[in-house]
């Protein structure tokens, strides 16, 4: 659209965990459950993908759970492993590996390959993993206040609240859906709603490199390499790289920040900031009546929607003409 001279703004698809329901606050010593959320069968991975996902998860002594959100209910169903897991070995797994399928050496190598995530607010290198100066300290847990739930049948709480989810699942999995009836390009460009759903629970997430997953990670500062697995060996390596509870504690903080940046409040501010930016670029036609800044509550020439907790907007190409 920009190439055609039309101003365009890409808006992320926000989650709707308005009240911060069922948010994880701790990491267990080892990964015991990996969850994949879906609404219908077409949103599941392909049979081939699901087979190696299940094998990879089971090889690490964890359980793959299919989490279905439908008609206001969250149903969590464990998938049977087709390989034998040594439960005694799983229970006594080396805490430095924390996953049965990772030796300490393999886990360390996976961490080196993936660059372990730096906790938001840490001082290593003078920059946090979100690109902010460490002198600012760690960001507060909730720069945006919780929003009131939508009334009656539009309530969002039932799509997020689940004590069972937090009890069973340590990692979220975001993967490409198998939608045989859709064009592959449409599948490739599907939104990242499910990734935002896991982030809204404060649950570290790994997955397949769809455009939306990578763009969301880049935009929010979430470690991109964790969303870059497309084969069994790559998924296994990612599982090893997040095996340590300390790493998952950092990722939980990243997920919380990413959830803030994919919230309805952040999306609304992004929209307002984009309007301010376009207003500074464009001179509207005389036939369009534009409210004066003083006539619109909260909007003025200085554009107060540049919130310190939001990432910068992607540079808007100056259009040849404004609509």
Structure description:
This protein has helices at 47-59, 87-91, 104-114, 163-168, 184-188, 193-200, 211-220, 232-241, 245-261, 264-281, and strands at residues 33-38, 63-70, 73-78, 171-174, 205-207. β2 and β3 form a beta hairpin. With 323 residues, it is α/β, with parallel strands linked by helices. Residues 85-98, 123-142 and 285-323 have low confidence and may be disordered.
Provide keyphrases for this structure:
5 strands, 323 residues, 5-stranded mixed sheet, 10 helices
**SSE series:** EHEEHHHEHHEHHHH
Compute the separation of the termini in Å. 12 Å
Estimate the helix proportion, in percent: 25-40%
Q: How many helices does DSSP assign?
A: 10
Q: Report the major sheet.
A: 5 strands, mixed
Strand arrangement in the largest pleated sheet: 3-2-1-4-5
Residue stretches low in confidence (pLDDT < 50, at least 5 long) are 85-98, 123-142, 285-323
Class by alpha and beta content = alpha/beta
Estimated share of beta-strand residues: 5-15%
Can you count the beta strands? Answer: 5
How large is the radius of gyration? 21 Å
Mean pLDDT across every amino acid position:
75
Looking at the structure, what is the overall shape?
Answer: globular
